């Protein structure tokens, strides 16, 4: 049984990302894993200032929610990020969080497998490419980690539309069941 940390980066209430993240998490639990979900909704995340003090101390000089989230990330066996696609990339709040994970780089982080669930109004297969590439760039800084899987759920326009789409909910559930 793995300790899996799911980080939902959508800030919109009743978002498609939120519904799909819940369904995916149900699949993770059904597979027998211990899972914790953190939503970035309502969290205080400051921008990284690039001071690099964290490279020496493994602690960020900024005091906000990214500090305790980074500690949760460090101790998880597996990470699962969920993000809406904005302008064919990660949400800004996800990118901000990834930047703030810099203190983990020199640490003895536990995570090995990283997964990504992306959600967008567009449904072309190329839609999530830049989001996946951006997360891959972050993962590349952690030699013991790898991108273990992605799921793209496109064609979802209106808030909550995913909740009525049994096919896409089942895809998210099965994706969750496959997370290790």
From TrEMBL:
Highest taxon of source: Bacteria
Keyword Nucleotide-binding carried by entry: no
Gene Ontology MF annotations: oxidoreductase activity
Residues of the NADPH-dependent FMN reductase-like domain: 3-135
Protein's UniProt keywords contain Membrane: no
InterPro entries tied to this protein: Flavoprotein-like_sf, FMN_Rdtase-like_dom, ISF_SsuE-like
Keywords: Flavoprotein, FMN
Protein name: Flavodoxin family protein
């Amino acid at each position: 049984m793995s300790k899996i940390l799911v980080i939902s980066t959508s800030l919109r209430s009743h978002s498609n990302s939120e519904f799909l993240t819940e369904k995916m998490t149900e699949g993770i639990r059904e597979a027998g894993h211990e899972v914790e979900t953190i939503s970035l909704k309502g969290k205080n995340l400051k921008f990284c200032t690039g001071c690099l003090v964290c490279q020496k101390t493994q602690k960020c000089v900024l005091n906000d929610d990214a500090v305790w989230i980074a500690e949760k990330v460090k101790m998880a066996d597996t990470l699962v990020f969920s993000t809406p696609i904005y302008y064919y990339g990660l949400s800004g709040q996800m990118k901000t969080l990834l930047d703030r994970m810099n203190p983990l780089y020199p640490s003895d982080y536990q995570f090995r497998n990283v997964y990504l669930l992306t959600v967008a109004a567009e449904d072309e297969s190329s839609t999530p490419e830049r989001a996946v590439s951006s997360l891959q760039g972050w993962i590349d800084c952690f030699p013991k980690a790898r991108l273990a899987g992605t799921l793209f759920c496109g064609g979802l326009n209106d808030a909550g539309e995913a909740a009525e789409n049994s096919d896409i909910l089942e895809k998210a559930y099965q994706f969750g069941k496959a997370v290790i």
